[in-house]
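Fill in residues.
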């Protein structure tokens, strides 16, 4: 496609940060007896082989503000690094070279690797990850030397932390790291490109990045960081470094405005000369779906929407067109530029994106709509009477195993090979099974199992107006799991109820409370491709109004407990602290707008997982949900301590077991977790639940682990009763 710098080592079996940990031998001691893929996947997912191995997985977190998960490797003062023999970056470079392709191997840079890693809970207090910097950098030098010897001309070190607020110590460490690296690889031919993305470089960090010794080029994200462009150019001009300009959005699906992109590149060329300018996507195309071909080929293809979009393959041609336009003049790619202008204008002016009624409703939102009728303690009293739950109530997070047969039923229905009533019959059968299963296990607050949902965001996306969906717009989320984010192109509204019938049916089968399950506005926003012609705040609040209507309808249908999942609330947090408050304000308001339409007796739950929630504790408290279930089995004690420090005022269910593993957590382990919670939270506010939904699990392990969970709750209940 005319791309000059082709990356390698950009495919991962689980995630890139875990790959780097293995490349540099940062293996926590509990995995020491394992090797190869067993080792790799045990770190990611845990491994249980009766009689031989029983190790839990490492924690899981989100890569900056994306929905791409990574494994933060725990480090201690005793951690040592050593470059793996025949490491993946070298192997894959050689593999491409053998095919006649000269690649630019990619790996996360040493500073970002350390900053993304976690200080292990076993580390002595006062341990700083940065104390490991030199020993790590020496292994980077060894890797780069091997790549140089193998014939690599460039290496790309991703240092996205350069867009964050760095402490003086971290800034100094950046300089030390790259000074040491340069001193070790100084004589080599290989050149180093340091890549930043997801934000612009503010002035100190821009100076820092362009002053890093031994670095030949710096990549900047001009989609998120356009406002830092002039500054970057001025700083680059004082150096002899090249600049890689990310002018095509790697995080969204909209076509780039090519004439704008050409203008930016031309401006850089005028200042730096063409030799020192590289044209690129803003970040890795890992965050984009693959190609529009499958969309175009689909029956009932939405040709208008397809014309607005570019997936990874199309983004490559955008990069190529921009480069050509700058090198050979706009005339050389006139046709492509004209077509692009037409598509870009068509999206911004299409009548499909505007819905005056939705805009009017948003303007009419009042403060009363974002406040519950009474404060928590009053609600608690009403709910206690209505729900009559035992202490340490048990529940699950919503989804039950999505088996192959279930997925087949949904696929057949979509294809039209089974009809509506047959589909409903099959799903009702599934719901009945799930309800019986939970009753047999003696769970207190039940769920219907989410069998009708392909995905917690996609399902709602398909039902909302103003939201489009793709055939094959898959994006990796974690490991081999992918999601197909909806495309929010216009004003969002809810034409009709989305979950009420299924939930009502499930409730009709049991006398226990059936929890209605919804995905919250921030999660729908963060896990979709979002229009860029209005602030995200407006889009979030439009979605919130749609969710609010669903909440009210569920209540009217007799549902007493409603969970609004917000696993992505932390993900939307801007990377720069200076922008946090503004986001948190509209994020909290959006959740409240969605959840506050109900009476005191209706118990509102929310659920969150796999993020650093310590950063946003105040906002989480402001959500004022009656019960919050939150992933914690994978995250050591950090999270519980954060809740302790803030004295979480409502009810809380920190997960007692990890759901990303086939491993059946033993009861003793769950008991320890609950004991830990009790030292941080009021005992009569604790719920017992898993970390997250069970859709990726099989039935057998689900049954075994939930038995342990219910038994654990019962033992605590009995102890409380006799105390
Ligand atoms: C990523 S959070 C998942 C919540 C959802 N209700 C489920 O159980 O799958
Ligand atoms: Zn979750």
């Amino acid at each position: 496609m005319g791309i000059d710098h082709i990356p390698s080592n950009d495919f991962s079996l689980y995630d890139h940060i875990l790959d780097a940990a293995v490349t540099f031998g940062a293996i926590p001691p509990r995995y020491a007896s394992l090797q190869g893929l067993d080792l790799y996947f045990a770190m990611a997912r845990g491994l249980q082989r009766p009689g031989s191995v029983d190790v839990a997985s490492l924690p899981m977190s989100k890569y900056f503000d994306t929905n791409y998960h990574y494994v933060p490797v725990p480090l201690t003062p005793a951690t040592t690094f050593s470059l793996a023999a025949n490491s993946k970056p070298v192997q894959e470079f050689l593999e491409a070279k053998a095919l006649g392709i000269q690649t630019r191997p990619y790996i996360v840079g040493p500073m970002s690797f350390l900053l993304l890693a976690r200080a292990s809970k076993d580390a002595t207090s006062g341990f700083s990850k940065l104390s490991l910097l030199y020993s790590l950098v020496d292994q980077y030098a060894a890797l780069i030397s091997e790549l140089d010897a193998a014939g690599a001309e460039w290496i790309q070190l991703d240092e996205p932390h350069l867009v964050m607020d760095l402490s003086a110590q971290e800034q100094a460490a950046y300089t030390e790291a790259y000074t040491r690296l340069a001193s070790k690889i100084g004589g080599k031919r290989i050149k180093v490109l340091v890549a930043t993305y997801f934000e612009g470089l503010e002035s100190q960090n821009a100076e820092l990045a362009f002053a890093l010794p031994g670095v030949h080029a710096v990549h900047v994200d001009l989609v998120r960081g356009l406002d830092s462009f002039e500054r970057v150019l001025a700083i680059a001009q004082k150096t002899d470094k090249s600049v890689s300009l990310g002018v095509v959005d790697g995080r969204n699906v909209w076509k780039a405005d090519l004439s704008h992109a050409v203008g930016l590149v031309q401006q850089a060329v005028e200042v730096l000369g063409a030799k020192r300018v590289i044209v690129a996507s803003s970040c890795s195309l890992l965050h984009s779906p693959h190609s529009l071909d499958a969309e175009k080929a689909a029956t009932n293809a939405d040709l208008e929407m397809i014309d607005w979009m570019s997936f990874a393959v199309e983004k490559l041609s955008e990069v190529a067109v921009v480069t050509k336009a700058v090198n050979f003049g706009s005339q050389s790619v006139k046709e492509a530029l004209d077509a692009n202008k037409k598509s870009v204008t068509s999206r911004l002016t299409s009548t499909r994106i505007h819905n005056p009624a939705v805009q009017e409703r948003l303007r009419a939102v009042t403060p009363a709509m974002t406040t519950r009728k009474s404060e928590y303690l009053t609600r608690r009293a009403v709910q206690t009477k209505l729900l009559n739950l035992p202490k340490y109530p048990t529940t699950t997070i919503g989804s039950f195993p999505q088996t192959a047969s279930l997925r087949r039923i949904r696929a057949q229905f979509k294809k039209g090979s089974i009809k509506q009533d047959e589909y409903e019959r099959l799903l009702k059968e599934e719901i009945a099974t799930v309800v019986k299963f939970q009753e047999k296990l003696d769970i207190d607050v039940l769920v219907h199992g989410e069998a009708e949902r392909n995905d917690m965001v996609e399902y709602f996306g398909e039902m909302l107006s103003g939201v489009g969906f793709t055939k094959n717009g898959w994006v990796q989320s974690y490991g081999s799991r992918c999601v197909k984010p909806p495309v929010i192109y216009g004003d969002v509204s809810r034409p009709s109820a989305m979950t009420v019938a299924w939930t009502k049916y499930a409730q009709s089968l049991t006398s226990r409370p059936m929890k209605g399950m919804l995905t919250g506005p921030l999660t729908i926003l963060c896990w979709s491709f979002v229009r860029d012609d209005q602030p995200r705040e407006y889009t979030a609040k439009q979605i919130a109004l749609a969710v609010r209507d669903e909440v009210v309808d569920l209540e009217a249908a007799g549902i007493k407990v409603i969970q609004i999942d917000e696993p992505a609330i932390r993900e939307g947090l801007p990377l720069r602290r200076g922008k946090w408050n503004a986001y948190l304000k509209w994020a909290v308001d959006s959740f409240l707008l969605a959840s506050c339409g109900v009476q005191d007796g209706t118990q509102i739950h929310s659920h969150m997982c796999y993020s650093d929630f310590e950063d946003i504790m105040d906002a989480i408290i402001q959500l004022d949900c009656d019960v919050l279930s939150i992933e914690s089995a994978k995250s050591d004690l950090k999270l519980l301590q954060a809740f302790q420090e803030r004295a979480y005022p409502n009810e809380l269910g920190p997960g007692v077991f990890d759901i990303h593993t086939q491993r059946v957590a033993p009861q003793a382990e769950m008991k320890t977790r609950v004991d830990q919670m009790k030292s941080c939270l009021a005992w009569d506010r604790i719920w017992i639940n898993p970390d997250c939904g069970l859709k990726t699990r099989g039935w057998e392990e689900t049954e075994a682990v939930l038995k342990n969970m219910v038994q654990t709750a019962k033992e605590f209940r009995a102890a409380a009763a006799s105390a």
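The chain has 26 helices and 23 strands.
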